[in-house]
Amino acid sequence: NSFFNKSKQTTSSSNSSATTLPHPSKKAKGTVKQKISSLERAKQARERAEQAEREKKERHELARKKAMDKKRKEEKEEVERQQKIKAAKAKTKQTNNSTAQNGVRRQQSVLKKKTAAQRLAERKNHESRRDALLMKAHANNNTTTGVRHHHSQHPARVFKPEDNYDISGLNSCDSTDDERNPRKEIP
Prior knowledge:
The protein is mostly helical. Helices cover 74% and strands 0% of the residues. It is built from 2 helices and no strands. It has helices at residues 2-18, 24-145. The longest helix has 122 residues, at 24-145. It is rod-shaped and about 170 Å long.
């Protein structure tokens, strides 16, 4: 019996070394835990990737909005700049027109003044020549007769140009012309 017991012991000891292998149910538990943790890690990785994708889209959308805002701002500034240029051109044109009109008015005024001054000068010149001729005629008339007459006593004399060889202008006391040097040309 003891031999039999010994062989049982040997067998059981050999069995005990065979029993060191994990039990199939224990192995399955470890595998399930590993699978669960692997699935959780994959799920977390997907969530991180989705979060990163959402953040990327948000950054892209923010950049697009900034670009649109910048473009609108530049367009608005350009419109304002064009309006300022247009207003400046209109003001310059209005100033030029008013300056031109003022220049034309000044020129017209100067021309009127010059014309009026020329007329006045011509009138004064004419009057002074007339007065000189009247004085000369009056002096000739007074010296020839020796009597001074007031202009209201004599009828108005018609003065004829000097180159007119009219004998009515001769007085009885006048001497005849020198043939070599006549006072008036004979036509």
